[in-house]
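Lab notebook, design round three. We kept the backbone fixed and only want residue identities now. Task for the bench partner: fill in a sequence for the structure below.
Input structure tokens:
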């Protein structure tokens, strides 16, 4: 897709993923290594495949490389620091990207940070783990992977703008903000009149209702989505049908009203004790079945249930093998192309380079460059994706979060929805002041901000022409139906392409459009379970806790948005649209590549380890004064440990080596906890930062709202809503130096923009609209 572009990768393991994904998309990625090179470990092997290595010995080397490049990616790994504005002055068409812990400016811009402390700062950690223990992170570091993927998207947004203006610009990524998206919707509870999200390992707290999702089975663990409502209730009822057939419950239990069960609890017709009894029955039933039996019945019956896999299961996945997902590198399986593209398949990448392997060839000036217009003499701030037209069929989170990003940067997005099949986000995941009205849903307001709502009943034959007319108008269409649904409706890619040969259609689902698990039904919580994330989150002496909510719904949009922007670039050069087949599970494995590689090298399957880390000690989350208040502390080296000991007034421990600190970790954690428990988390983080130690309070929704760094970065904008007045939205985690974005309105009411879409976009007259109303197409 992007085979005309050159990227200079100045990053270390924190940012290598950005360049790796650009290499998959076709870019020539040059890895700039210091004298001596980067350590050749599983991280290097995972994220530097397909790159060319060159040794840079001084700033002049970097300046020469940047003068002949299209992108420069930086995370502060070079010494001395690189002057990115100076590179752009010498090459005005250059796009530079910086990834930093908290963003390039603001009160925390200079704070030390690790994966642990960034997750603590994001609002996600407080939701992870068991209520009776400290919050936990995912045991395989995630924060910088989120930052790297957001950097990829930001770079491609800037590239789209450059294709018209001829100018480069800077992309400033905050890793804290990148991680914060994974805390949705809990991070928005505060200004919506809702209490902070309570932790529940392997499940979800909704007020007084505790929904248990993980259960031991005969050969491991399974995830069963115990939930209710118009969308999920019928699927849970099918699970109860299976359980009853197998003797796991009686008919009276099976036949309860699972769609409105939560309302019955509120009204007093059902009780929390009865819900607990049902979940106990599910637990007894689960113990009698294998993971394979659960997977089979889930596919046959369309259940929201799945085995919880470890990374060994992921490597041996029949689904991944059927889709030829893996790249084989000297007998080791690496995650392969993050999306299937019909006209411009992603590159299959070979091994990571040797140090300086490409020194001579990289220094030869390029003969092929992207065709860009001459830089405009005068530029006014503008939205970089203005003029892009998007038809959005998607629902719930992964697809709509993709189109939210496009809408923020100026794309015109028409969101199709129906009262007869409401999106889950309207009925669940939190409502303002806990009033369960579909126009009051906080996640809907955020995820669908800046989109135009056309309420249309797609089951009516007359609706098809409206959709086809929108397809003729659109540059992009995004859908997240069960595979084959759009074809069955007569609106599949071949039909849309026949109307609009330049259209780009992206289909997003858990496992992709092909393979034995293509019909797997599920949301991001189930995708996280089958992709390996549940098994690596929690405590080693307890069952899988899993990350908060629907984790892969938050990893997916970065990949799908990047693919759409790359496909647009390909279309500009070739005139061709294409079909993009996106598997949430496949893309998410790129966040786990180092562990997948290490497992195959060593035979040791990584699993959950609480908050411990093999390279740092102490490395944990410690109690602070107050109810459920915590502070994450990580000593990255011996110097930080000695400083920490001075603050604890425990100089007797200061000379312990890393291995000794690991050996004595239980006793040291007890000592640290005794020291921290009477201190305020906010004061403690400032104290330790001042003394050169990475620390951050574990933030809940209120803490995030009042975090001076997030406030400085404008992470929580307010937007108008016809019924709610003003609602808060979680923002975009990067800023562009020239281009502007923003949310002009919150997620719309049903059909809020129907007349604008029909009249202004499609040009329908009054008679045509009346005919649609008579045919009950419009809602």
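Proposed sequence:
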């Amino acid at each position: 897709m992007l085979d005309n572009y050159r990227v200079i990768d100045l990053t270390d393991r924190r940012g290598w993923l950005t360049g790796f994904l650009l290499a998959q998309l076709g870019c020539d990625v040059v890895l700039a290594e210091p004298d001596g090179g980067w350590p050749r470990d599983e991280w290097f092997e995972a994220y530097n495949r397909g790159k060319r290595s060159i040794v840079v010995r001084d700033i002049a080397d970097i300046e020469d490389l940047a003068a002949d490049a299209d992108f420069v990616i930086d995370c502060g790994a070079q010494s001395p620091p690189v002057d990115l504005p100076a590179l752009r002055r010498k090459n005005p068409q250059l796009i530079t990207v910086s990834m930093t812990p908290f963003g390039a400016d603001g009160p925390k811009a200079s704070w030390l940070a690790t994966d642990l402390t960034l997750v603590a700062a994001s609002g996600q950690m407080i939701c992870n783990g068991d209520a009776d223990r400290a919050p936990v992170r995912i045991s395989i570091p995630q924060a910088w992977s989120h930052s790297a993927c957001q950097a990829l998207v930001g770079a491609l947004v800037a590239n789209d703008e450059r294709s018209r203006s001829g100018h480069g610009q800077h992309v400033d990524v905050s890793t804290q903000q990148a991680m914060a998206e994974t805390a949705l919707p809990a991070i928005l509870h505060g200004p919506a009149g809702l209490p902070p999200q309570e932790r529940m390992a392997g499940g979800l707290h909704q007020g007084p209702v505790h929904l248990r999702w993980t259960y031991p089975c005969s050969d491991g663990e399974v995830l069963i989505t115990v939930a209710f409502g118009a969308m999920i209730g019928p699927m849970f009822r099918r699970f109860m049908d299976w359980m009853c057939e197998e003797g796991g419950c009686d008919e009276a239990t099976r036949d309860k009203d699972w769609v409105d069960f939560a309302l019955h609890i509120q009204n007093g017709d059902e009780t929390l004790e009865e819900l607990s009894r049902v979940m106990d029955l599910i637990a007894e039933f689960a113990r009698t079945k294998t993971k394979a039996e659960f997977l089979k019945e889930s596919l046959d019956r369309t259940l929201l249930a799945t085995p919880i896999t470890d990374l060994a299961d992921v490597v041996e996945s029949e689904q991944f093998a059927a889709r030829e997902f893996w790249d084989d590198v000297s007998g080791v399986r690496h995650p392969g192309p993050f999306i299937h593209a019909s006209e411009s398949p992603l590159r299959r990448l070979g091994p990571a380079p040797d140090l300086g392997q490409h020194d001579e060839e990289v220094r030869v000036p390029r003969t092929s460059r992207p065709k860009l217009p001459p830089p405009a003499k005068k530029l006014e701030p503008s939205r970089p994706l203005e003029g892009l037209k998007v038809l959005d069929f998607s629902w719930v989170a992964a697809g709509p979060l993709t189109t939210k990003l496009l809408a923020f940067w100026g794309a015109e997005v028409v969101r199709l929805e129906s009262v007869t099949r409401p999106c889950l986000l309207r009925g669940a995941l939190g409502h303002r002041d806990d009033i369960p009205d579909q126009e009051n849903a906080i996640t809907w307001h955020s995820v669908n901000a800046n989109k135009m709502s056309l309420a249309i009943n797609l089951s009516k034959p007359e609706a098809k022409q409206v959709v086809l007319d929108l397809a003729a108008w659109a540059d992009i269409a995004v859908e997240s139906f069960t595979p084959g649904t759009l074809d069955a409706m007569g609106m599949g890619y071949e039909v849309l392409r026949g109307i609009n040969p330049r259209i780009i259609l992206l289909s997003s689902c858990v496992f992709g459009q092909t393979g034995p698990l293509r019909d797997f039904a599920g949301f991001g919580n189930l995708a996280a379970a089958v992709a390996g994330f549940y098994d690596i989150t929690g405590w080693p002496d307890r069952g899988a806790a899993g990350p908060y909510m629907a984790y892969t719904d938050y990893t997916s949009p970065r990949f799908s948005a990047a693919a759409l922007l790359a496909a647009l670039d390909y279309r500009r050069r070739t005139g061709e649209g294409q079909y993009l087949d996106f598997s949430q599970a496949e893309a998410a494995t790129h966040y786990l590549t180092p562990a997948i590689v290490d497992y195959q090298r060593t035979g040791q399957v990584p699993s959950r380890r609480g908050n411990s880390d093999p390279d740092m000690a102490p490395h944990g989350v410690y109690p602070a004064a107050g109810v459920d208040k915590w502070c994450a502390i990580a000593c990255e080296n011996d110097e930080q440990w000695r400083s920490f000991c001075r603050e604890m007034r425990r100089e007797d421990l200061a000379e312990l080596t890393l291995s000794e600190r690991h050996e004595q970790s239980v006793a040291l954690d007890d000592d640290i906890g005794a020291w921290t428990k009477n201190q305020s988390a906010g004061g403690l983080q400032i104290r330790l930062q001042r003394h050169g130690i990475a620390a951050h309070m574990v933030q809940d929704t209120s803490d995030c709202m009042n975090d001076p760094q997030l406030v400085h970065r404008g992470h929580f904008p307010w937007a108008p809503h016809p019924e709610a007045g003003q609602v808060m939205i979680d923002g975009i985690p990067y800023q562009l130096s020239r281009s502007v974005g923003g949310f002009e309105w919150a997620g719309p009411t049903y059909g809020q923009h129907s007349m604008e879409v029909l009249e202004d976009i499609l040009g329908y007259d009054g008679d045509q609209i009346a005919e649609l109303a008579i045919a009950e197409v419009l809602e």
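Keep this in mind before ordering anything: The first helix runs from residue 16 to 24.
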